[in-house]
Automatic annotation (TrEMBL):
Pfam families: Peptidase_M50B
Name used for this protein in its record: M50 family metallopeptidase
Coiled-coil positions: none
Domain of life, source organism: Bacteria
Bilayer-spanning residue ranges: 25-43, 98-117, 123-140, 147-166, 217-241
Keywords, ordered alphabetically: Membrane, Transmembrane, Transmembrane helix
Length: 244
């Protein structure tokens, strides 16, 4: 019976960590994790790999909204070039399809903003375990081997920090991930427009929205950019780095 008792004790400790608010991190830690996240985004050799986290959030947002509007989610694929595709079945036009297409590029920023809100309340461990739950749900929809590997690898990292990390490590990792999502989302929008200007991206979310709504794709790109920047600005306010 001892192993069972030990397991129960460990789970009880995890639950206490999830439901107990932590003290706010120092401004130095918040700024340090923001700088580290910016380096992960700005340094191109690293960005080629870390951008996969943005793709996971992007396609996850498509899938989440597809489920919420009543479309049948047929699967998600993540590719090694950091592209991805979410397939859902339903009416090919109309508000539901528009909502699904709208979700992708703002998705990482909105997830980051939600994370910033949770951190502002002092619950980094709850944030990490909530993220793990979302990754498990996403994993059920993955339909290719690379996508499976990507989600499992990212989930393993989050689990390791959540289970074995100290309180400081958990808080710092949650801060880093939040800043990464908030800062990476605008860069992804810039890359979208760069691809479109180069003749690519004709099947991008913005171009599909143009075909569905008649609104120029450039305006949709601008909307994505403004929304991601607004999320970043509000995330900065919630982070506590600005003077009162």
């Amino acid at each position: 019976m001892r192993p069972v008792a030990c397991q129960d004790g460990a789970m009880s400790e995890v639950w206490d960590n999830i439901t107990t608010a932590q003290a706010d991190p120092s401004v130095r830690v918040v700024i340090g994790t923001a700088v580290a996240a910016l380096l992960l985004i700005a340094w191109r050799p690293v960005w080629r790999h870390t951008r996969q986290v943005v793709t996971i959030a992007h396609e996850g947002a498509h899938g989440l909204i597809a489920a919420l509007v009543g479309r049948k989610l047929a699967g998600i694929r993540l590719h090694s070039d950091t592209s991805g595709v979410t397939v859902s079945r339903g009416h090919p036009t109309g508000p539901g399809m528009i909502a699904v297409l709208l979700a992708g590029y703002p998705g990482p920023a909105l997830f980051g903003l939600g994370a910033a809100f949770v951190l502002s309340r002092g619950y980094p461990v709850a944030l990490l375990w909530g993220l793990l739950l979302l990754l498990v749900l996403l994993l059920l929809q993955i339909r290719n081997l690379f996508g499976l590997w990507s989600v499992v690898a990212f989930g393993t990292l989050v689990f390791a920090v959540s289970w074995w990390g100290s309180e400081q490590v958990q808080s710092g990792f949650a801060q880093l991930l939040t800043w990464f999502l908030l800062l990476a989302a605008p860069r992804a929008v810039l890359e979208l427009q760069h691809s479109r200007r180069g003749g690519g991206g004709r099947n991008s979310d913005a171009d599909q929205l143009r075909r569905l709504t008649g609104v120029p794709a450039l305006l949709w790109v601008g909307f994505f950019g403004l929304l991601t920047l607004a999320c970043l600005a509000l995330g900065v306010v919630w982070s506590g780095v600005l003077p009162d």
